Structure formats: C-alpha cells, structure tokens
Amino acid sequence: MIDRNDPYFWADVLDTILKGAGETFYTVGVSLLLTIVFGLAVGVLLVTTEAGGLLAKPFGSRLLGIALNRVLDVLVNMGRSIPFIILMILLIPFTRLLVGSFIGPTAAIVPLTIAGVPFFARLVEIGIREVPTGLVEAAQSLGATRWTILTKVLVAEAVPALALGLSTTVVGLIGYSAMVGAVGGGGLGDVAFRYGYQRYSPEYMFGVVILLVLLVQLFQSLGNFAARRLSHR
Amino acid sequence: MLTLTLERGEIFGVVGQSGAGKSTLIRTINSLEQPDSGSVHVAGRDMTSLAGAELRQARHDIGMIFQHFNLLSSRTVRANVELSLEITGAGRSERRRRALEILELVGLQGKAAAYPAQLSGGQKQRVGIARALASNPTVLLSYEATSALDPETTRQILDLIRQLSKDLGLTVLLITHEMDVVKRICDSAAVMSEGRILEQGPVEKLLTTEKSLLGQALFPLGEIPETSGSVVEITFTGIPTDRPVIAQLARQHGLDVGILGAAVETIHGRQTGRTRLELPGDEGTVAAAVADLRSQGLFVEAIK
Ligand SMILES: Nc1ncnc2c1ncn2[C@@H]1O[C@H](COP(=O)(O)OP(=O)(O)O)[C@@H](O)[C@H]1O
Ligand SMILES: [Mg+2]
C-alpha cells in the first residue's frame, strides 16, 4: 500500500516513474525504428506502385504492381481501422509466438509496431505524393536508376514532411505504449495503472501524466523544428 | 506519324497549338514516352530499342530542360547540378569541379550555395541548363523551357542556349507555343498539328515558301480584306532603306498601291518584314509589277 509518511516515499515515486520511463523509451524506441523501416517502405510502395508510378511494373509485371498496391492498401486500412485496444488483444497469440510471452516491454513492441507501421505509412504516402512528378521526370531524363530516383528524389524531397510525420508517429506510439502498459506491457502506462489506479496514488498518476505531456511536447517541437530547418522550399 | 530530321549543331523549333502533339514528340526523343510505332535515332542510337542500362547511358547524352525547371528544392544549386554527375558516376572532386565550371558557363558563379527557392525564374532555368549539360550531352531538349518566364528573361535564356549551342556544338530540339522563340534562335522549325508535321525546314526558307504556315504565324497580318484589286505579299530581309520599293512600284507601273498591312520582325537578328499590298489594275499590269519585284530579289506571294 501507499505510505506517504515513509521517508523514502518521494524517492520511490521518482524511482518507479523513471524505471517506467526507461521501459517506455525502450519499447517506443524499438517500435519506432521498426516503424520507420517498414512504414517508409510501405508508404513509398503505396505511391510508386500506382499506375504510371516508378514501380508500376516491378520486375516488369504490372499485375504484380497492382497486387502489391491493393494488398498494402487493404493491410494499411485494416491496421488503421482496428482500435488499438482490440488490435492489442487480437495480437496476443502472434506476440506470444514471436517473443514467447505477451507480457513485458519486449512483447509490447509487437502491437506497437503493427499499429505504427500503417500509421506512419499513410503519412509517408502523403509526403511522397507532394513531390512534383516533374522532378522524377527530370531525374529520368538524366538517366537515373529507379533506386536513385527513389532515394535522391522522392524520399530526399519528402524529408521535411517525413520529419513531421515521424514526430506525429512518436507521439502516437507513446500514447499506444501507455495502453499496452496498462495490460502488462510495462512502462509508464503500467506505473499509472498499478500505482495511480489500483493503489489510488495521485502522486504516481500525475507524475506519469506530467512526464507524458512533456515528452509529447518535446517530440512535437523537435519534429516541427526539424521540418522547418530541412525545408528549403 | 511524322518524320523529323535534325542537323548536327542546329537549333530546331517545333511549334503548334496546344494538343498538337509537341510534348509527346519531345518525350519520345529520350524515351520518357514510347511511340506506338516508328523509331527515334539520336547520335546513331535507336532510342526505341533501348532499355535498362543502355537507355540510361543514352540519356546521359541527351540533356533536357523543363518549363517548371524541376529542380530539387532540398538541394543547393551546386548539388542540383551534381545530381547529374552522381548519376553518371563521377567522383566527388570531379563532380564539384565540373559543377562549378558549368555554373560559371551559365552565368551563375556565386550562386552555388543558394537553394532554388532563393532564385529568380531565369536563374532557376540556368541551373536547369547547367544540370542538363553537366554530363556533356550532344543533344539538348528544351521542353517549353521559357514558357514560364517573362519576355526579357526569355530572351536572355534563349541567347544563352544559342551561345551554348554554338560553343559546345549542341544540337537543340525545342518545343514551344511562343513564336518569339522561333524568331530569336531557331535555325529550322516545324509546324505541328494533330500529331502531324505540316511543314518543316530552315526558317529563312519557310519564310520564302508560298502559303507557309510558319510565315503566316511569324507575320500576323490578319484576315485578307475585301478588295477590288489584286493582293500580294512581299517579304524582305533587311530593311531596304536605299530602295523605296513601293514608291518605285507605284511610279514605274502607274499603280495606286494600297498598303493593307505590314509586320517587321527581328528574325535571327535580322530585320525581316512582310507587307501586304493591294494592286489595283488589270492582270497584265499586276503581273508585270510582280515580275519586277521578283527581279529585285524580293519574295512575292500572290494572295488573290
Ligand atoms: N503522333 C501522334 N499520334 C497519335 N497521337 C498523338 C500524337 N501526338 C500526340 N498525340 C496525342 O495528342 C494529345 C496531345 O498531345 P500533346 O503532346 O500533349 O500536345 P501538346 O504538347 O502540343 O499540347 C495526347 O493525348 C497525345 O497522346
Ligand atoms: Mg504540351
């Protein structure tokens, strides 16, 4: 139980919250890395496999392009339409299969990544779509390979939009991580749930809330700053 | 279906109204678009038969500039030019050297570190030209390259293209809907409509060709009015100040010459004009007058 007269009470609060924050950083950090890699790929593919796109005919097959486009679109929509709390529960068997358990910070990475990828992919898609097609044509006229066009034109030109999308994604992931935490995923959500809710301690609850607000502020500002610095339009 | 042949080192303009097929034509030259049939040969290569690495290699030899410049906003001027050299696989120091060299050639020394957003339209097109020419192509495709520029800047860019064409031995194919472009820099021109070439040839030759569409477009004299007499159009290069052609015509043939219209244009730096005259009088007198004008080396077209 909570004992506010314990001389170590505040030290414990701080310790617990910091430990929770550490777990949150770990969970969100790893899922973010995976989200960036897969979300970028999916977002780029969504745009480029469309008719007339750079990868409209992967390996010379338009059919493959269409299939890829449709499948990714459906998967992304599914990921975006299932409420996270349900997705989390839905993924329990899969998570268990993948990491051996569905409890703890490592297990939390699975649903977070699966929710994060479609979220980020849509933002990547928007960013890539904003790159004028004339730039692709100019690179083609110079004799660029598709890979060069992908990396040096489409992605490079979308970087400011990607930075903004990334900060929005981080914020989303932090929110999701708190949800996973509440059902055994560790981290700040776990702290808020076990101490703040189950043991009625506003100290823990507000500690977590303040930290979350600060983190969200920080990442959003970072994203805005980066987007502004990186954009030369 | 059309046939177009360019001489090495010449500036060839294709004009035509919107929808004539100009964009389609220029885009088949570097295979941005594939023709349904026919072939495109550039510097001995059949572009339509190329794919993959061979096509990319061939594109290094064909520069292209665009109406909206198509520069990467995320890269500095120098880095935009270097993109061309990254694609051809040049090393770092060579890229830098060549980029600065070509930027100087297009008059942009000192702008290497600027971003495209900080430049004027004319400067952006200069970057476009530098990027297109960095890999030493033999052909330059100009895709409505001055259509987004004001008249003064258009002239500067056209003069630059002419200069570069001369200095580097570049063959230039340009498409445009602006007659001024043809007047200012084209050696040869073609008029397109509905996917076909209606006429083509050296500009000066087209100007002295009967019923030339290019001639009519370059000298807009308007509709032919109702007249009782015959109507002829005289085209002359260089203003004949020492030869009062019309006064002489009136005096020697006893004709009350009426001037229905006149246009003077600077074509290739030379004053060239076309005058539409009404010649009242019987057939014989008019025929003699026309023969007289022709004997003076003037191009005379009988309109009615
Ligand atoms: N040689 C051709 N044969 C058949 N269709 C053509 C040909 N040239 C152009 N077209 C068609 O005509 C339309 C207009 O062509 P476009 O190149 O955009 O004209 P412009 O650039 O002169 O406005 C396009 O739909 C194109 O497919
Ligand atoms: Mg066009």
What can you tell me about this protein's structure?
The complex is a heterodimer of chains A (233) and B (304). Helix content of chain A is 81%, strand content 0%. Chain A has 233 residues and is mostly helical. In chain A, α1 (9-48) crosses α8 (187-197), α1 packs parallel to α9 (202-230) and α7 (146-185) runs parallel beside α8 (187-197). The radius of gyration of chain A is 21 Å and the shape is elongated. Chain B is built from eleven helices and twelve strands. In chain B, the strands form three sheets. In chain B, strands 4-5-6-1-7-8 form a six-stranded mixed beta sheet, sandwiched between helices. A four-stranded antiparallel beta sheet of chain B has the order 10-11-9-12. In chain B, α3 packs across α4 (92-105), α4 (92-105) crosses α5 (121-133) and α5 packs parallel to α6. The two termini of chain B are 33 Å apart. The complex binds adenosine-5'-diphosphate and magnesium ion. Magnesium ion is lined by residues 22-23 of chain B.
Produce the secondary structure layout:
The complex is a heterodimer of chains A (233) and B (304).
Chain A: H1 9-48, H2 62-81, H3 84-90, H4 92-99, H5 105-129, H6 133-141, H7 146-185, H8 187-197, H9 202-230
Helix pairs in contact in A: 1-2, 1-5, 1-7, 1-8, 1-9, 2-5, 4-5, 5-7, 6-7, 7-8, 7-9, 8-9
Chain B: E1 11-16, H1 22-29, E2 41-42, E3 45-46, H2 52-60, E4 62-66, H3 77-88, H4 92-105, H5 121-133, E5 139-143, H6 151-168, E6 171-176, H7 179-185, E7 188-193, E8 196-202, H8 203-207, H9 213-218, E9 230-237, H10 245-253, E10 258-267, E11 270-279, H11 283-295, E12 299-302
Parallel strand pairs in B: 1-6, 1-7, 4-5, 5-6
Antiparallel strand pairs in B: 2-3, 7-8, 9-11, 9-12, 10-11
Bound molecules: adenosine-5'-diphosphate and magnesium ion.
